[in-house]
Amino acid sequence: MAEVAALDTTRLAPWLRAHVPGAEGTITAEKFAGGQSNPTYLLSVDGTPRFVLRRKPDGVLLPSAHAVEREYRVTRALADSAVPVARPFALCEDAAIVGTPFFVMDYAAGRNFWDARLPGLSPAERGAVFDEMNRVLAALHAIEPEAVGLADFGRPGNYFARQTARWTKQYRATETGRIDAMERLIEWLPANDPGLEASRIVHGDYRNDNMIFAPDAPRIIAVLDWELSTLGHPLADLAQHVMAWRISADAYRGLSDADLPALGIPSEAEYLRLYGERSGSGPIDPDHWRYALAFALFRNAAIRQGVYRRAIEGNASSAMAAVHGARAGEIAALGQRIAEGEDDARL
User: N or C end of the chain: smaller count of CB under 10 Å?
Assistant: First the structure.
């Protein structure tokens, strides 16, 4: 699960004792393996796992990227809501403590499913896990931002247009070579924006490996990695999640080449229908869904390009960053195919 971390606890230990209840004792840290963005560490007190520390990566960062401050704020707001999160304890914006700003949250001990095919589970257990993911996403989108103090967590309305502009800018800032499919999407997305205006709290990276499930039940006890969260359109969040059905297992830990009925995993259409029933949104307009999927793939490709650039510069959080980042072109090409009408396109 974890590897020994290069995290100096000399200044961290006294800071924890001053800001986090239960942090008295000898502090040790291990870095969780995997992940491409904010380095994350398991903190033990006298050998007992107690907390998780999530910090910004080293090096020069793009504006608004790796926003641990936003993660801390949104998880505080949702701590007593219908959406399970690891309870946050404290935020530190002083880079002198561990090298970059960070926050500390509770350690949610449970199961983390890295592979969307959920190996080791029975078909019935897999179906229950997917049903739970669907339920929690619908619950998140049902929360009124104002009710949890997040009315100003993002600008309301015009989400797709603003996000397309933002990720185009991020992509340009990390570009290492021309990707023709990205150029096509950068033109297509603004020209075909359907003008959807709903505004809810969106996670931004809702997927099975960003969740902790109870050790003995198909129940989410914590949704993790909120750095891309904001106020946005629920369809964008849903498309980001359902993108797993469009990408392959070997390269992307997805489901496009899986025997879903045999595994007990619902089809994309079944999953969308269930979400529509739970959220009250009803059937999704096919053109809106095509647009949301194309946007999600465009954004994913831009993120991968940023990961790749950090790998080249030596600032990536994971050794796999170069591998995953180099696949930005493949993801963009899939987005282009969907945008241009190949509705069942997949990798």
Answer: N
